[in-house]
Amino acid sequence: LLDPAGRLRSTVFEEMTALARRTGSVNLGQGFPDFAPPREMVDAAAAALGAGHHQYAPIVGIPALREAIATHQRACYGQELDPDGQIAVCAGATEGVTAALLSLLRPGDEVVLFEPRYDLYGAVVEFAGATAVPVPLLPPAFVPDPDDVRAAFSPRTRAVVLNDPHNPTGTVASRELKELLVELAAEHDAVIVTDEVYEHLRYDGPHEPLATLPDAAERTLTVSSAGKTFSATGWRVGWVSGPRDLVQGVVAVKTYLSHSAAAPLQHAVAEALAFPREFFDGMLADYRERRDVLVAGLGEAGLTPPTPQGTFFAVADVSDHYALAGVDDAAGLAQHWAQTAGVVGIPVSAFASPANQGLYADWLRLAFCKRTEVLRAAMAGLAAAV
Ligand code: GLN
């Protein structure tokens, strides 16, 4: 987290976005859409502003949004949640994960984290004075060895974080892995925190929240948000659901983080969650097309990424391109391609702790949450440069 002078570092996302800006490259690094959210949701936000929703929302979130989240979980996953007590609205999934972990962790506790992982998880574990116990997802399939998963749990384990669908690898957790986590969490009296912000970006079958597995609900905090589903990562509206006592802890902490998420935007997200099935299907079809454009374009450039099963990220082993570029890892190639191909990706090693960085040194993450013409242009630049 700290640089050699002891100052907090900025994130790899900001670093690579700055590189893209400096070089005039297409930014396939930081994952944010370059297209607009659904018109109806934007109109609903404008209407909510016009209707005078300018003061603090309730700490737990406005009732209409909590009800919409409960309805969404029932309709999509058959999950029953009481909007009064089992759901807390947060300032993005970022605050949801942060408040969940801070509510659980005390110095000396251990948290099982799969790697590569979104940088937030490790940062919050450090802020809490707890210890991250990494479990590597093994390339090229990015599946963990079940023995490593078992070995990571100890009497000090307080929580395990699962991100499913998974950023950065674009994989989806298997039923067996989720069952194993439920079993191990029960055995060690640990809480499972699942980050499911890509729940609607599943290309090969419906998402299955871990909390809906047998015996899971009582020890699982599920985090999601509007950012990815509705192409509005700047709105910062997310939520946490789970058993009452655990959600109560999340609320207690978030009170002193954001207090409450943006009131007018909560009204708009409540409406968006109730969009008809066709909206979600159409959004997914658009993303499948973007994914296929990126994967095909990478193929033209001589890369063979595993086809993403979820999220808006693909990862590719780029080691065949080192010689031509005169580099020796994906981080070097990311810099080189920013200059020569006009494309910026993020080296997957940036998502790992030092001990595991070597495992991912050859992998580059590319985001495909961009208009297809932008993706095609980026891939043409890459093909011309390699
Ligand atoms: N979640 C997005 C990504 O992984 C953006 C992260 C960020 O900017 N903090 O790219």
Topology:
Elements (H helix, E strand, L loop, with lengths): L11 H12 L2 E2 L11 H12 L12 H15 L9 E4 L1 H13 L5 E6 L3 H9 L3 E6 L9 H7 L4 E7 L11 H13 L3 E5 L24 E6 L12 E4 L2 H11 L8 H11 L3 H24 L12 E5 L4 H4 L4 H11 L2 E2 L1 E2 L15 E5 L4 H14 L1
Parallel strand pairs: 1-10, 3-4, 3-5, 5-6, 6-7
Antiparallel strand pairs: 2-8, 7-8, 9-12, 11-12
Written description of the protein model:
With 386 residues, the chain is an alpha/beta fold. The protein folds into two domains: 12-30 and 278-385, Aspartate Aminotransferase, domain 1, CATH 3.90.1150; 39-274, Type I PLP-dependent aspartate aminotransferase-like (Major domain) (Aspartate Aminotransferase, domain 2). The chain has 13 helices and twelve strands. The longest helix is centred in the last third of the chain and has 24 residues, at 277-300. The radius of gyration is 20 Å and the shape is globular. The chain binds glutamine.
Radius of gyration: 20 Å
State the helical fraction.
Answer: 40-55%
Shape: globular
Tell me about the largest β-sheet. Answer: 7 strands, mixed
Under CATH, the topology of the largest domain can be stated as: Aspartate Aminotransferase, domain 2
Structural class: alpha/beta
Number of domains: 2
Element-by-element helix/strand order? HEHHEHEHEHEHEEEHHHEHHEEEH
Distance linking N and C termini: 34 Å
Bound molecules: glutamine
Q: Quote the average pLDDT.
A: 97
Cofactor: pyridoxal 5'-phosphate
EC number: 2.6.1.-
Family: Belongs to the class-I pyridoxal-phosphate-dependent aminotransferase family.
InterPro entries: Aminotransferase_I/II_large (IPR004839), Kynurenine-oxoglutarate_AT (IPR051326), NHTrfase_class1_PyrdxlP-BS (IPR004838), PyrdxlP-dep_Trfase (IPR015424), PyrdxlP-dep_Trfase_major (IPR015421), PyrdxlP-dep_Trfase_small (IPR015422)
